[in-house]
From TrEMBL:
Highest taxon above the source species: Bacteria
Protein name as annotated: Toluene tolerance protein
Transmembrane segments: none
Organism: Candidatus Nitrosoglobus terrae
InterPro entries tied to this protein: MlaC/ttg2D, Tgt2/MlaC_sf
């Protein structure tokens, strides 16, 4: 176990991810019948259990890359809100498909001096399905661990969206991207 400068251990980051995942999967299992009938209710479960552990401002900043510095505060806020809804919706839909998964925690990555760490998980969706490797990137924000990126089988959430968003901004500007995200979220009923 390593410890950061302010006393946060990388093991506590793994504990946070483990406890959050366990609580989320138990809640989904406990409400499976209700979720089968009303799948949109998964959003509030994810909002209550997972979202508090994300730093969406940082996620949004990383996803916009150089365009973040060019954005106004109002654009940053609007983008962060719409991007958060998109991530929650996407994660929630995937969660419903894989709620019976088994999760194994691999050794964490991070040094004693680092203020960030990577919690590595191996997710086994079921018999005959290949394992999914997930890296949860966390950093120390004011004495607590916050998630700022997730990579699934080597594909980074932030990097994946950054390339798409950069292309959309070059073609139509940031305001148009925000409007498209808002429209997509509205159509999805989120």
């Amino acid at each position: 176990m390593s410890v950061s400068a302010d006393g946060l251990s990388t093991a506590s980051a793994q504990d946070l991810v483990r406890q959050t995942s366990d609580r989320l999967l138990k809640t989904v299992k406990a409400h499976q019948k209700e979720l089968d009938d009303h799948p949109d209710r998964i959003y509030s479960i994810v909002e209550n259990i997972v979202v508090p552990h994300f730093d969406f401002w940082r996620v949004a900043q990383l996803a916009l890359g150089k365009y973040w510095r060019q954005a106004t505060l109002e654009q940053r806020q609007r983008f962060t809100n719409e991007f958060r809804v998109l991530i929650v919706r996407t994660y929630s839909v995937a969660l419903l498909k894989y709620s019976e998964q088994k999760v194994h925690y691999l050794p964490i990555r991070g040094s004693a001096e680092a203020n960030d760490t990577i919690v590595r998980l191996e997710i086994q969706p079921g018999e005959g399905s290949p394992s999914i490797l997930m890296n949860v990137h966390l950093y120390n924000k004011n004495g607590s661990w916050k998630i700022f990126n997730v990579a699934v089988d080597g594909v980074s959430l932030v990097t994946n969206y950054r390339a798409d968003f950069a292309s959309q901004i070059r073609n139509g500007g940031l305001d148009q991207l925000i409007e498209k995200l808002a429209e997509k979220n509205k159509k999805a009923g989120a």
